[in-house]
Amino acid sequence: MKSLVIIVYLTLVSTFSTGMHPTCFAEVLPYDSIKIFVNDAVITANEIEIRLFEELKRQKIPLSNQETIKKIRTEITDLLIEEALLNARADEMMIHVSDDVLESQMDKFRSDRKLTKSDFEDLLDHQQISLIAFKKNYANQMRRNQVISREIRSRIQISEEILQKNYAQKEVTYLEVRAKHIFKKVPANATKADKEKLRQQLIWISDQIKGGENFETMASKYSDDPSVKSNKGDLGYFKKDEILKSVSDVAFGLAIDQLSKPVLSNLGYHLLIVTDKKKEEKKPFNDIKDQLYQEEYQKVFPEQFKNYIKKLKSRAIIKYNPKTTLHLSNENG
Fold it and tell me: Over 80: is that where the pLDDT of 9 sits?
């Protein structure tokens, strides 16, 4: 599961290019209770619960998965604290979003999503968010983004020397690979012992192939892939994002004719062998300089952001209300 911490970085860095999650604009209900005090601001139980519930829906996580829910709740709580800290810093820096600027950005928001004003208002109504609440939260998000731009992004310096070094280390990019696989399906109710038995079967098959057995013959005999009779395990050519990521990551890292170890995906175990690769020669430095800069920036920014938030926390007063607890039950949907 992709960490919400990474989503936090992306949301804060590229507010308008990535869009905003509807729950960022949820209104506090009258009966809501305070969960956390951050300086003079408050984070309520309702804010946390709404964002949590929407994130569970987005990731399609069942309410029975309490361990994951607990982890996401913690990440959402940290996110709300970070937002409160950045809002306070925006106040200190006297950052203000004028009505004209806000309306201009609202127009851009609607235009980017090809929404008329009427469509936009219908969408807010469907999400049970008032236009006033949306504007208020949108303005705050713009202010937070300005804080980050001034105090983090503007201070990140990436030298030409670093870019040249990264360019020298950049390998040839493989656009497509052709691979074969032998697949052992893992049943939905499989135990750890069941999975280990299937993994050991693939290790045995791998040993037979290394000993001289033909890969296609072994695929025809042992693979659970329903298409094996027609393709003998051949997956054909594929780009990195065209098949399961766990399989793709391994396939693109193999040399031609190299056997993989058993690879676990959400379907089962795969034994892979790459038979060909189509490559793209490395482009001249000046042609990809901007790309190299962005790649290095994305490495540097998360740590800079983390240190900045740590600094804001060190001088803030953050108090938790021990009387407020959250329990998301199956009654929520």
Answer: no
Do 20 and 152 lie in one domain? The reply is yes
Classify residue 285: in a domain, yes or no.
no
- pLDDT at 24 (0 to 100): 47
Q: Which of 4, 41, 74 is nearest to 318 (CA)?
A: 41
**Distance between CA atoms of residues 84 and 286, nearest Å:** 41
Q: Contact, 145 vs 15, CB < 8 A?
A: yes
| Cβ 221 vs Cβ 202: under 8 Å | no
What's the pLDDT tens digit per position in 61-100?
888 889 999 999 999 999 999 999 999 999 999 999 999 9
Size of the chain, expressed as the number of residues it contains:
333
Determine the average pLDDT of the residues in 273-299: 90
Are residues 182 and 135 part of one domain? Answer: no
Query: Is 75 inside a domain boundary?
Result: yes
Residue with tokens 């170890």: 261
| Whether residue 113 is found in the same domain as residue 203 | no
Residues whose CB is less than 8 angstroms from the CB of residue 106 and which lie 6 or more positions away in sequence, other chains included: 135, 138
> Model pTM?
0.59
